[in-house]
Specification:
alpha+beta; 3 helices; Hypothetical Protein Pfu-838710-001
Length: about 180
Amino acid sequence: MSQEESALDVERSWLITNHIIIPKELDVKRLKITQMYLVSEHIEWLSQAQHNDESIEYFHTTKKRGREVEKTITPEEFNKYMSRLCSERQAIIKTRTIFEYHNLKYELDQFFHPVLFSILVVEVNKIDQEVPLPSWLGESVEITNKKSFSNQRISKSPDAAIKKADKLIAAHRESSKS
């Protein structure tokens, strides 16, 4: 069983405001992800990731003080953890498309449950690093550090995330008119 501990994540993120058509020539990795939160004193969740070749990996992740510890688990361990599912949170179902652009790693999460929107996350060295966005993404609104768009908040309050997204998009479009 492997275990990975991430350093403090430095990421910038954008809410994508339109339907996305990913160019066929772009070299991408796609994962179908189901993420479910557990009853815990820390932030803790299970993930199931299905790869293009239909293989499935299972993960258990704990987040404490901004650090994530993710470990690969067996299907049996995954099923055992299921008894601790948090009934106050909805499962997140999304497709993650991972690609490189201008030597940066991009992750485009297209959510299908409990919300229908897309969020682009880019790993950066420092928070004010310039991040070029591919033109094919279309219109976007930066949501870096907006906690209402974290997976944890989306699973707990999807309606609030949808309202916040609608409000941000409307404000963005209004300011673009000026």
